[in-house]
Design brief:
The chain is an alpha+beta fold. It is built from 2 helices and 7 strands, in the order αβββαββββ. Strands 1, 2, 3, 4, 5, 6 and 7 form a 7-stranded antiparallel beta sheet that branches.
Length: 154
């Protein structure tokens, strides 16, 4: 009799565990639904420049450089996200990181220009078949030049 009670509890525990695990998989699958907003990835090359979940980094086409507070980089990603959803993602997310939207240019591909204190960030979204190529270009703002004297440079 004790054997059947132990078997019953083991069977019940297995059923609860499998039901719990299958429930988790449907919850995580709902984030990939194309009807909602895009979510940012957890691991970022630049902490204040988000990347939508579902886009894969293209490391052979990307580079970053950080030295003495100066950040420069071109990051490329590819994925099956709709360009309009990516634009909506960056409109919302970049403001959370104190980036100001300067303008959006649309001509087949889409360009979004952002700036903050001493940096600029250009987001380019290029449709490529059923996928999109996302390029993030980050660098320092150009220094304002003062009026030079009329004497020639020697």
């Amino acid at each position: 009799m004790k054997f059947f009670i132990k078997l019953f509890f083991l069977f019940s525990a297995c059923c609860l565990l499998s039901a719990g695990l299958s429930g988790c998989s449907t919850v995580s699958g709902s984030k990939n639904d194309n009807s909602g907003l895009l979510e940012p990835q957890a691991l970022l090359k630049f902490a204040d420049v988000p990347v939508p979940v579902g886009l894969k980094n293209l490391p052979k086409e990307s580079y970053t450089f950080v030295s003495s507070g100066v950040r420069v980089g071109v990051l490329k990603y590819q994925g099956k996200s709709d360009p309009e959803r990516i634009i909506a993602f960056y409109r919302e997310q970049m403001a959370m990181y104190n980036w100001s939207l300067i303008n959006i240019v649309e001509y087949g591909q889409r360009l979004m220009n952002f700036e903050k204190e001493n940096e600029t960030c250009i987001i380019t979204i290029e449709p490529k078949g059923s996928a999109s190529i996302l390029t993030i270009s980050l660098g320092p703002k150009s220094q304002k030049t003062t009026k030079s004297s009329k004497s020639p440079v020697k």
